[in-house]
Amino acid sequence: MTITTSSILKDVEKIRKNAPLVHNITNYVVMNTTANALLALGASPVMAHALPEVEEMAGIAGALVINIGTLSDPWIEAMFKAAKRAKQRQIPIIIDPVGAGATQYRTRTARELIETYAPSIIRGNGSEIMALCEQGQTTKGVDSTSASDQAIDSARSLAQEFDCVVCVTGETDYIVSQKGIIQVKNGHAMMPRVTGLGCTATALCGAFAAINQDFVKAAAHAMAVMGIAGEMAGQNAQGPGSFQVNFIDSLYQLCETHIKELFNA
Amino acid sequence: MTITTSSILKDVEKIRKNAPLVHNITNYVVMNTTANALLALGASPVMAHALPEVEEMAGIAGALVINIGTLSDPWIEAMFKAAKRAKQRQIPIIIDPVGAGATQYRTRTARELIETYAPSIIRGNGSEIMALCEQGQTTKGVDSTSASDQAIDSARSLAQEFDCVVCVTGETDYIVSQKGIIQVKNGHAMMPRVTGLGCTATALCGAFAAINQDFVKAAAHAMAVMGIAGEMAGQNAQGPGSFQVNFIDSLYQLCETHIKELFNA
Amino acid sequence: MTITTSSILKDVEKIRKNAPLVHNITNYVVMNTTANALLALGASPVMAHALPEVEEMAGIAGALVINIGTLSDPWIEAMFKAAKRAKQRQIPIIIDPVGAGATQYRTRTARELIETYAPSIIRGNGSEIMALCEQGQTTKGVDSTSASDQAIDSARSLAQEFDCVVCVTGETDYIVSQKGIIQVKNGHAMMPRVTGLGCTATALCGAFAAINQDFVKAAAHAMAVMGIAGEMAGQNAQGPGSFQVNFIDSLYQLCETHIKELFNA
Lengths: 265, 265, 265
Known about the structure:
Three copies of one chain form a homotrimer. The first copy, chain A, has 265 residues and is of the alpha/beta class. Helices cover 52% and strands 14% of the residues of chain A. Chain A has helices spanning 5-18, 31-41, 51-58, 73-89, 104-116, 126-132, 152-162, 197-211, 215-234, 240-253, 256-262; strands at 21-25, 44-47, 63-67, 93-96, 121-125, 165-169, 173-177, 180-184.
C-alpha cells in the first residue's frame, strides 16, 4: 500500500470535477472553516443535523462525516439516524472522536457510533485514538497529550476490530488498516495552533472517500493534501490567523507542482 | 424601477449613520461571517433564537432576517414567533430558504414561513427559488444546480403570490417584484467558493430594508453592494481564504469611487 | 494595585508554558474566533455545553468561561451545572453578560448566574454592566450605547455586592474591584467593528485567571494584552477582515518589545 504524487493529484482532480456532496454533522466551532475547506478543495459541503432531515440529506450525499466536537443528546440521535441511512446506501462514513478521553460522554458516544455502524475511516489525534481503545488514556480537553506514534497499537487494534481505516494524525500521520500502515510526514508546526484543523482533516477524508472507494488511499490522500496545504500556508504566515487564511487559499491553489515539490511519505 | 450609483451610495451612508439593529435567526455555519459583514458595512447585528427572547429582540430591531440553513424544530418555533412580532411592528422580514429543495423539511418550513408572514424580501439561489414554487426542483445540498435566469418565472410567481420582492442570485442577480425586474451584474467568480456569501447577501438585505422602505430598491442596493465588494475583494485574492478577508474589508472601505467605477446593472 | 510591563509579560509566558485548559460555554457566533484567540495566545480551549459532560469538563479545566451570547434554556442549565462544579473545585469563573439589558431573558440569566455563583470576574461593555445593576439601562442589541466610564459606579457596586472583579471595556477599560480601579488605555478604533472581540476579552480573562490567582491582575493583564494586540493588528489592517486576522497573529507574536512599546495604563 502506497500513495504517490500522481495518485494524490488524480483524486484532487476528481473532487474538483465531481464536487461530491459531503454531509457533515459536526461541531459549532469548526462548521464555517470546515465548509470553507471543502469548498476551497472543490467539494460541496452541507451541514445538517435536524432529526426530520438527516436521513434525507444522507440519502443524497456522497459521504457522511460525523464529528462529536460539541455533542448533545439530540445531535447524537441525529448522528445515529444519518449513519443508519448512510450504511443502507453504502456511502462512506467518517468519524472524528473529538475529545474522546476527555469526558466519558464523548468516549462512550464515539465507541457506540463505531460499534453500531463500523465506519470506513476514523480520524483522531493520538490521545483520542488511544481513548477509543479503552486504554484508560485521558485527554486534556481536545488537544492531544500523546504523540501520534504512541497510538499505533491502538489504531491497529481498532482497524482490526471494525475492519476500517484509522488515521492517527500528529507530526507524522499514520494511516492504519489491516493492509498495513502508510505514513505521511507533511504538515507545519503552526497547525495545532489553529482550531479545527483536525476536524478539517476528517472532513477532507469525507471528500476523498466520496470519490475513491479504496478508503486507505482516500484517507492517505486527504492527509497528504492537509499536510501539503499546511506547508504552503506556513511559507508566508505571520501567525495562526494568516496561516488559516493561507491554508484555505492553498487548498484552492494546490496543483501538481506543489504536490511534487512537497509530498513527503 | 432602477437603481443608480447615487441611490446605492445614499443608502450605504444611511446604514453607516443609523447603524440599524438587524435581528438574525440564522444558521451556525455563517453566524460569525454574517455578523462581521453587517458590522463592516455599518449595521448592528444581533443573533438571538431562544423562545423566551426572540419576540423582545424582534421588538427592538429594525429588520428581521430568517435563514433556515441549519434548521431544527425549536428554532422553527422561534422563527415563527419572531416573525409574528416583526409583522405586528411592521418591520421588514427577509427570508433565506437555504437548501430548499434538498430536503422536504427545508422546503416545507420555508413555504410555511412565507405563507404565514408574507416577507418583504426572499433571497435565494436559482434552485431554492424554483423549489419554493413546487416545481419539483431538487437542490444538491445547499449549492445551486440551476442558473439564476432559469428561476425568473418562479420568482415572478412568488412575487405575485406574496406581494414581495424575490431576489434570485447568481452570475446575474434578478430582483423581481410586481413592478418589474432589476438586474445586477456585479460579482466575482470566487464567491460561490466561500461559504455563506449567499447568507450574507440576505443579511445585507436586512440592513438596507431597515433604512429604506422601498424594498425593491433595498434588495437591489444590497445585491449591488455584495457584487461590488466581491469585485474589490477579488482584485487581490489568492483564493477563497483571502477573498473572504478582503470582502469584509471591502464592505468597510466601500465609497463613492468604488460604486461609480464598478456598478454594473 | 497596578500592573506593569513585566507583570503582563510574566503571565503571558506562564500561559504559553502551562497551556491552561479553559472550558468555554459560549455563543455560536464567536466559538471559532474565541478558540483561535486562546490557542494563539498559548492556552488550550475547549467548548462543551452538553448536560452529560459539562461537570466532567469543568472538573479538569483551569478556568470556566460562561458567555450568554446565544442563550437557550438547555444551555442555561448546563451553565449552572458547570459553574457549580467549578465553584466546588475553586477554579475561577468568568462571566460575560452579552446583551444584558437588551432582553429580560439575558439580564435575568446573567443576574442569576452571578448571584448563585459569585464569579471571579465579570466582563462586559458599559450598557451591559449598567443593566446588571438594574439601573433600567437598555442595550441596543449587543453593542454598547454607553461609554465605559458611565458604568464605573455600577461596576463598583457589583464588585462590592459579589466580591468580584468587574471589567468594563470600551475606549478605556476599567478593572474595578474592592481594592480600587485599574485603567487600561490600549486598543484600536476598529475593534468594535469585529464581532466577538468583547467575548474574546472575556475568554482571555479565563486564560489569565487560570494561571494567576490575583484576579484583579489577571483581568487587567487580559485587557492589556487585548488592547496591545489590537494596536498591533491595526497597524496594517485594511478593514475589520484583515484586522481580525492580524489580531490572532498578534496574540501569537506578542513579546516583551510589543508590551514595552505599547502598554498604556
